[in-house]
Amino acid sequence: MISLISYYADLAIGLILAFLLLSLLVSGVNEGIVRLLGIRSKFLWAYLRDTLDGAETADGASRLDRILDALKRLGRTPRTPPTQAVSPEEGRSRLPASLVGVFARLPFGRDPRPAFSQQPPPVESPPLAAAAGSVAAEQMTAGQTGQATAAGETVDPAHPAGQADPEETAVLTVEPAADGAVDGTAVGAAVGVLPPDQGMSMAELLHERLQEIDHAKRGRTSIADIPPARFAVAVMEIATEHGGVEALMRDLDALKSPFSRPLKAVWDRASHDLEAFRHGVEDWFDGEMERLSLLYRRYVRWVIVALGLVVTLVFSMDSLEYGKTLLRDNAYRSAVTAFGEAGPQALEPLREQCEPGQDPYACVTDVLSTPAFVKIFTHAPVSVTMDAADGPAWGWHGGDWWQRLTSPAHWPGFLITLIALLFGAPFWWDILRRVSGLRTRTSGSTSS
């Protein structure tokens, strides 16, 4: 009975080890792709750009965006109604809304991350300005063009605005400021919103306060995580330099920034108390990061499925076959142990499992030195064998690998392996600790 329990315990541990190893491989490949393409950092800054600076212009799409949109239209069925065109006033989001957008448009399209700077944060930040390529910047440019055109028509029909008299030029300079004029004695902060080339956007002002803990990646920031407490302090710093929270909210509203609405709600709930306002902004940003993490994991989940399928097929890992191999391996070792003490004649039953003409002692030694766990990698198209005399030897087994893939008898085992890999490496590590009795030492534990 104890021997039977030992067999099944070895079977469980062998399967768990195999799933843990392959899950680590899937996680490593996924993390390598994410870090190589900078997807996590771009995902965060695309959200920050949309939240702080507002939507980007619909006509600012890159060539890759147009190609992806064309492919979507080609793949759309006739029954599916065409998507409504993006309104110029609404713009378009920088945050991708599909799996293709996350792993195609985001890595290879327009980079939403701010430029990296080796300089420390300046003592005085530039004024707040509309983000380049945003809807607010486009409307500001259109408004200035319209004012200049209207001014050229109303000054004097006899000559254009460029030939206006000094008195007329003074009138044109003063009139636009009358709409949003502020008290000239205000502490140089209520300067309003400037064009993109005369200041920095809200997202760039935020990055300016985080660039000391940054490092360059292709000339862009690599920050992929912002602590909520640091974000709240950065907002307080920006508001202080901008003349107060209310002045910042007013200009963010003029920029059509979605950040102005939660900022106003937090400010009203804090009853104009700065400490309560800081905690409110911290809690709001913490909740937003949780939502963003859930959205990111939803997209990455499908990538894990694809990578798990690739790993399963590359190693042609049949879980059912591997389980049988584990049981046969244990039984073979037990037979060798039982009959080894009886002399050479006891090895005759084991001769049937060796190749014809092979020395049974060499066969037994080879089997005992190659456990079933190592045999996982022997079914890949390319395998390596270690020889004590000649060293590692590489072999190509493409024909056998393809035959395993096309054999329906292995498909149930492949499916079980794929489902097991979706649980992830942390799950199988926890199961391994529970089954084997391993305990993780904490930082406070000491050895007796």
In short:
The protein is mostly helical and 448 residues long. The chain is built from 17 helices and four strands.
What does this structure look like?
- There is one protein chain.
- The protein has 448 residues and is mainly alpha-helical.
- Helix content is 57%, strand content 4%.
- The chain has 17 helices and 4 strands.
- The strands form 2 sheets. The protein has a two-stranded antiparallel ribbon. The protein has a two-stranded antiparallel ribbon with strand order 3-4.
- The longest helix has 41 residues.
- The chain is elongated.
Layout of helices and strands:
Elements: H1 2-37, H2 39-53, H3 63-75, H4 99-108, H5 135-154, H6 166-179, H7 202-208, E1 216-217, E2 220-221, H8 228-241, H9 245-254, H10 260-269, H11 274-314, H12 319-340, H13 348-351, H14 360-368, E3 382-387, E4 391-396, H15 398-405, H16 411-421, H17 425-436
Antiparallel strand pairs: 1-2, 3-4
Please name the defining characteristics of this protein.
57% helix; mainly alpha; disordered C terminus; 448 residues; two-stranded antiparallel ribbon; 2 domains; 17 helices
Between the first and last Cα atoms, what is the distance in angstroms?
35 Å
What count of helical segments does DSSP give?
A: 17
Poorly predicted runs are 77-86, 168-191, 442-448
What proportion of the residues form beta strands (DSSP E)?
A: under 5%
